# Entry
Amino acid sequence: MKVLRRVGIAAGVLVASLGLVAIATGARAEANKSALVTDTAGLNDRSFNHLANVGRLKAQKAGVQTRVFISTKTSDYLPNLVAAAQYVGDGGLVQANGFLLADSVNTAATQFPNVHFSIVDFPWVALKDKPTNALGYVFKSEQSGYLVGYLAAEMAKAKGGKQVISAVGGQKIPSVDNWIAGYRAGARKYNPKIKVLIQYSGLFPPSAAPKCKEIALNQIARGSQAVFQVAGGCGLGALDAAKEKKVWGIGVDADQSYLGSHILTSGVKRVDTATFTAMTANAKGKLKTGGDVVFDLKNGGQDVGKISPKVPKKFIAAMNVQRKLITSGKIKPPAKL
# Structure
């Protein structure tokens, strides 16, 4: 009886829609407090955690009392969730930022049945005990990945030479693989013969950036003309390698065009909007739990960032044709490698 449904991401629409996509737990939130628990990449990852924190700060400006709990290691997840639950109190909201916090969210939500929990990049239905006070955010990142992969293949074909592009992932988990699966599929849609190199660093924090850079340099040495980073702060090293070797870099989660002219574009995930709308909806007593909210290209939860001015307009137009095919359901990018 619990199903995934799509909702509009516009702030007003989502706030109104959250109650429609999930199953009520009963009492509405009375506490005007929300907390964010990060994964281990830190707030300065310039992508995933950064975006969630942007949404938190926006909610704070809108009148919600908020606090962030930073995880530096995986063993911090549960203690941080417990501390966050104690901070927000009954009816408050605790957002867990990332797939890797799922087991801890399940445990914390069970221990604090009167606190609301949301988790980014993990479906509620997959939580072990399916706590009715939890809510899952599912992002169809394979859709944005498909578009940036298509664009990268267009640019590689135009340049000539080895038809190779690549991706540097953090850990091999579904919320990383769906980006890369879409990226590879989009590239192959444009050029079935293109080679897509894929490797994982096993890490997300900015402190691991040298490892991601080394992986990207090896990929570039094998002919990669575009490097897609899907490794959070670590991935900044991959983009640095692209800059150093004068090939294209592709950002992830946030629009990372600010890093320089070597950025082709970015696959964008609106974690900031999801965070803001959930926190403000909860403060108004309009957040209901026990289900999932799906974000995709059609409702604006996924997107493509700023595109380099060096990209021919006809290439962008061709990519946008693919966008329309995805939003109409005629193309369904794969979420698994």
